[in-house]
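Checklist before submission:
- one chain only
- standard amino acids only
- sequence pasted in full

Submission:
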Amino acid sequence: MSLLSGLPGVSGLRLPVPPLVGLVPEGVTAGAREAVGTAGRLAGQLVGVPRRAVWSRPGRCYITVHGINTPEGERTARRVERVLERHPGVLWARVNAPSGRVVVALESPPPPERELVALVERAEGHVPCADEEHEEWCQEPHHPCEGPRTGQSVTALAADVVGLGLSTLNRVAPWTPLPPEVAALTGAVARHPRLRRLVAQGLHDPQQADSLLPVLTALTQGVATRGGGLVLDVVERMAQWREAGAYRRAWEEAEARLVGSPGDAAAGPVAVERPVPPPPDAVDRYVERSMALTAAAGAAAAPFTGPRRGLAVALSGVPKAPDAGREGFATTLGRALALRGATVMDRSVLRRLGQTDTVVLDEEALSGSHHELADLVPLEGADPQEAAERLFALFAPERVGGTHRDEDGWVLGPLEELELSGRRGARAAARLRRQGSESVLGLARGRRLMAVAGLARQKAPGADAVAAAARRAGVRVVLAGARPEPAFGFADAVVPGGDRLTASLRGLQADGAVVLLLSGDRRALAASDCGIGVHRDGDPPAWGAHILIGTDLEAAGLIVEAVGVAAQVDRESRFLAAGGSGVGA
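Returned file contents:
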């Protein structure tokens, strides 16, 4: 019987039983399983972790919905909405598939939350969902409204605290039921990418490995070591706790602005499959090579130094610095973004920033809401200087679609709305559009057309900062635009945008790129490796993005510049790990 098979949510474990585990008495393994399960449940109850995540404010609540990203997701979402809206205390309900929540607007006084949760569970009905089967051990939700008090984070932190208590007890009354090598082996499994994947396959659910391995590592370190590694684990957990708390506060401030109506709340599922798997992570490659090298060194040393000393040499290559470096950087960056008001919907992307090698900037996201004069084509018989003076006098950026007249009879407006006799300016308008003008205006004196002006969108505040940050990050910069002549000339390459943006993104990924995208296109954002969602006031949020920034392009510049810093942190963490392995060996 496996040591892990009886843990909560770990039924059906298919991993073979290691020889060392078979030597442990069955009563000890049963006690360990019960202790872990009881600690997790008690920790969750003490801090109020619900079995189904619910966040609420006056007049509104968000309830987790399972099964909405399955093939039956659309039907499940509609059924959940219909069942909730039949309740007399509900004004409207809309499922937001990218966040895995149903948004419920409530009457006053509001109905009890338990009634709404029961309705959601009934509406899900027969939908199979792995999350329901393994709810205690499922991956920590990324929605910012949940904050730090989730089942995974509470259980892991509780395991670290228990481990420190066991380590302290071991110092006072030396008792070592497990050799230190056992703790090192669990740490090696937790950090080696391929070993983690093997454990995930054995658990049937890849998400459970991320929850279970830290708990087992903490407990074994507490029993078998003096707790030095656990101190660092506790510091990391507390930093993650503060990061999640900052996300929740930012969400509470932004929620009313993001979700002002049923149309803002509703969002269907979006496809997130990559055309090809992402390139191997440089940190994962280092971990595999380092552990393989020291394993070979340990095997070579074992005949001369003994098996236990050889195993110690083999385990000296288990690197902790890369994970610690990434976590420290990601938690600091996440809190800085939250303080700026950004809504981090998926905190895991901040841990992967160092892998990014391509930044795609959607020209639409870098453009403002107003237009500016870009070009002027005087027609035959017109004085260019006079035409330019009249054009600037009549032009109003905030009222481009209307006609404007002056007391001398000059008129500026869309060509199709001007009352003209004679020439219509079709050739000049076509030429301006070919040169990149988004729209054109006609300037007439009386009923005679004198000039045609081309308009372009103004740069949004902060657009230049994003471009400069992309250059400093040292990555490839790609501009996505729908016009043949892009308005921004700083890009290394240009790809089609607009309706073809998602296809362009897939093409870059198929060529091996890891892409960060700045856009308002929710499907393209969901398909990217890190999507920064832009939306203007009055427009629905770009649900599907990993980070929502509204119109704060300076926050986007901070994230883009962090790409280069994250890569540097990864490199320096690998160097530090290599030095530590050398000293340990």
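Reviewer check: The chain has 21 helices and 16 strands.
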